[in-house]
Amino acid sequence: MNLQILHYSYRFSSMQRLEKTTEKTLIQRFRDGEAGASKDLYACFAGKVCAVCRRYLADEEDVKDAMQETFIRVFQNIHLFEYRQEGGLWAWIARIASNECIGMLRHEAVFLTTPLEEDVEVSDDDLDELQSVPPESLLEMVRKLPDGYRNVLNLYVFEEKSHKEIAEILGISSMTSASQYCRAKRLLLKMIHEARKNEHDND
After folding, report:
1. Fold of the CATH domain 4-107
2. Residue 122: pLDDT above 70?
3. pTM of structure
4. Which of 16, 78, 185, 194 has the least C-beta neighbours within 10 A?
């Protein structure tokens, strides 16, 4: 068991908000040149695109810029999108958003990893504790991670990249990627413990 549950819970909860025919209908409306199709597509996906961008970017102005560029690319290229099944449009948009954020991070040279003081192991019991936190709360904690931890965790959990692929993207070793991921989980556990302690103290 690992943080992949966060990814799947996030993706499932997002898709629950769409009717089964919404994506296909939106695409058809675009191709028919229907007025209001762009506005409705934005309304449908803006919240989820914002969530993707906020996972990568700590600055809210950067989030807004990434969202704007994402939808510009979506509107410019939606005629190239081939509908195959429900959920495909969102997966395509989410990829565009992720790539836009990665591009911004690379341009700003913040694809840095956090120096490691020691190797950290995370037990199965620890992972079970991570999985007990609501996805929305866990996403907020992910956003508070140092850049290095957050970058590796985003790429590994949400983009489903291997540590070898992450190493190539970030210019680090596979071992460093795995260590950063492990320490990211350890720091998340610390945040969870502190949040629960604060809740207990306020009771």
Report:
1. Rna Polymerase Sigma Factor; Chain: A (1.10.1740)
2. no
3. 0.70
4. 16
